[in-house]
Amino acid sequence: MGRINLLDPLLSSRIAAGEVIERPQSVLREFLDNSLDAGSDDITVIIEGGGIDKLEVQDNGKGINREDLSLIAKRHATSKIHNPDDLYQINTLGFRGEALYSISSVSKLTISSFDSEEKKASTLVIDNGKRYPVEETGPEKGTICTSEDLFMDIPARRSFLKRASTESNLCRTLLSSKALAFPSVRFTLKVDGATRMQWPKAADYKERVMMLWREYGVSSSDVNTLNMEAEDYSITVVAGSSAVKRSDKKEIRIYVNSRPVEEFSMVQAVLYGYGELLPGGSYPYACVFINDNSELVDFNIHPAKKEVKIRNKADIHHSLSSMIKNGVERKIPEIKSVRQFYLDDTERWENGAKTKSFGVLPPTTPKVEMEDKKEERVFYNHNGTEAPESFEDRSNKYTPKDSEWLKKAKELKALREKVRNESYAKEEVKAIDEDEIVYIGQAFDLFLICQKGDSLYLVDQHAAHERILYDELLSLKTVQKLLVPIKIEVDDLTDDFLERNSYVYTKLGISLLKEGKGEWEIDAIPAVCKGIEKEIVDFITSAKSDEHQLEQEIFAVMACRKAIKKGDKVDKWAAESILEKVFEMEEPCCPHGRTFLIKITEQSLKEMVGRTK
User: Fold this and answer.
1) pTM to 2 decimal places
2) Three-state DSSP class for 453?
């Protein structure tokens, strides 16, 4: 007897389902894709037991008619493609007809829908592959898709699922990711009967992305929207400035034709674009939305459609990197109080028409409406015995008898303010000019502190001086001849490199002369580099960069070695000279790209200490 046999259809369907449905998050992804393809602009997600017990998506889309509902969830049943050529012109999120079929193989799937054209409602139930007749009942609008008891008949698969709270969080993460790409759709998440997240409709990508980024303390004023259009594609980037950064790449999000994808080359393009705007080890906030010609992309390479092939990837990569490099601004980081953070944001919480409820709440005390009823309280003396006075008696006792007391108190306060202001007016107070830099002192032998206008500034003395020296080196003011030339020996590879690029060092003020095979000497250096000859030699014997990078690197090295260090005492005159040059810079950052200036406004300081005036 042969050892090969045909698998039972139910068994084969469950094996196939494992490629598409891994956990409740996978079910939610497929339900959301169908709702969005149906033109929904209001979607509610209901989760119970982490989505394992129940996961439901309600939408207000165009619905499914009864005839189509009888075919739905059969293998490869889809309305998205009809012939092989359609695979190369896919403009929908779903298209293979595998999702609902897979879900119905591993759970109890219920689809209730109202057909907006025929004005009829229908309901289909498929319990782990067993289909029931379509019933003439359902919602009054849209479609409701429900998955219950996921993997109940496959205990081995169910045992690999996480705790309910973990699965719920994974679903929430997915919903957030989907919501970013569809700002015109309202999303609501309910977990075990409680509303956990609401994403109202937004005007554009930036407004929608800020609903997420505010949770990380990012302000709208630190975020810009960049746009570009080419013949076959368009790109929109919601990009954080240099004032906001992370220690990981989680908020570099890439979307291609409204699908979140894992595309390393596009993440790389984003990082290239930011370049030295951020210090080493820091990553930006950036959401990239790419709309490419559907004929030039292929999503049919991963069951979950997480990966994509892009024919014009090189063009998009270059465009993305360039638009970020030219469009993202460098901003001076500003320390704000919590209240000031919300007041400075463009979406003000006080504006009733724009009140948001997506996880971040304004720092105000909520109003609680109490029932209008008398409350009896028992008061105790200091020795523990009950006091005879009731709550009402005690309240009445301390209530002012004069009904005009509030008005009189306000008049008295106004009078005191008037007297105080008049006395201040008589004093001669010299105001600080808005452009005047007032040096205050040095902190921790590292930060120079000054006041300019209504703001306080902290300046990293080493990075600031390093940048000043770097700018001086670039201008090549003076070159100093060495009384005793410095002789250096190099290997064959470096010898060949120096023969081809010695002119670059000459342009930088470093005179290099070849004495023999592998033997060179330096007979002149920039005057500002006196004292760091050893560092220059070390750089020359190891550098293998191109001309542009070589210039940047050696100047950065020379400036870094020559600059004031952390721990150095800086006198008042040197500090004032550094500060004057700092405020003349268009972009205050060191040669390595690190911003060395921090701003604190007077208003923020007052709010931090609770001062109202």
Assistant:
1) 0.62
2) coil
